[in-house]
Amino acid sequence: MAEMKSAQADYTNFVMAANKQILQAEKAMAIAKIRAEIAILRGKRNIFNRGKIDGAIADLEGSIAELEGVMSEGSGGIVVIPDT
Fold this sequence. Notes:
single chain; mainly alpha; 0% strand; rod-shaped
């Protein structure tokens, strides 16, 4: 009985760690897409639209900061599952 509980706990920990890695990878991909959009916007910036594009870039950089904070190391991430 104790071996079964231990195996279940090990499996649960494995699944949770795998899910966390998947979320980290998805977060990194989202950040890369936002950074690419920032680069595109910077390429389109000129004297006539500079203010609007700078505002959009600031918004996108804020989104990156939020994404980086959502699942930073040591945080519980989006969902915190209590130990049982």
